[in-house]
Design a protein that fits this description.
This protein has helices spanning 14-26, 42-51, 70-75, 95-102, 118-130, 134-161; strands at 3-8, 31-35, 57-65, 82-87, 111-112. The protein has 163 residues and is an alpha/beta fold. The protein has two domains: 3-132, Rossmann fold (3-Layer(aba) Sandwich), CATH 3.40.50; 134-163.
């Protein structure tokens, strides 16, 4: 199975990113975690990204706050799927990061999840890998079925309570 690389712009993003790391590990997806800045380590970020496919990476998740150019810089240097996580890191509550991540020029797409949406970033990466991995697709379906059962059980409980 291909690996997922998670790149964050700063170690201050780790608190949010840990949810993605945990989710990927829960599904048995091998993960590489790195800190590269689009502004402070652009050469290293480019070198990592350029060799990612050859190193067994199938999807890259990029998390950054404020100006949040990391996901776009990564996407500019690979044809692998890139998922951006805008991080709430400024007085603008992450709106700046969201707009920086989602507003990409034609030809350089970045799939963008919600502000601090690390779990959904991991799940989207898993879905991408599951296109070629039936076992992973089955794990995803089982997790969705489990959540569905829990919701339907809560529905029965509340319905009975207010009959």
């Amino acid at each position: 199975m291909k690996k997922v690389a998670i790149i964050m712009g700063s170690d201050s993003d780790l608190k949010v990113v840990e949810k993605a790391i945990t989710t990927l590990k829960d599904y048995g997806v091998e993960t590489e975690v790195h800190i590269y800045s689009a502004h402070r380590t652009p050469i290293e970020a480019k070198e990592f990204t350029a060799s990612a496919r050859d190193n067994g990476i199938g999807v890259i998740i990029a998390a950054a706050g404020k100006a949040a150019h990391l996901a776009g810089a990564i996407a500019a240097n690979t044809t692998l799927p890139v998922i951006g996580i805008p991080i709430k890191a400024s007085a603008l509550e992450g709106i700046d990061a969201l707009l920086s991540t989602v507003q990409m020029p034609a030809g350089i797409p970045v799939a963008t999840v919600a502000i601090d949406g690390a779990e959904n970033a991991a799940l989207l990466a898993i879905q991408i890998l599951a296109v070629e991995d039936k076992t992973l697709a089955e794990k995803l379906q089982m997790a969705r079925d489990s959540k569905k059962s829990k919701i339907l059980e809560k529905d029965k409980e509340i319905n009975a309570k207010y009959k």
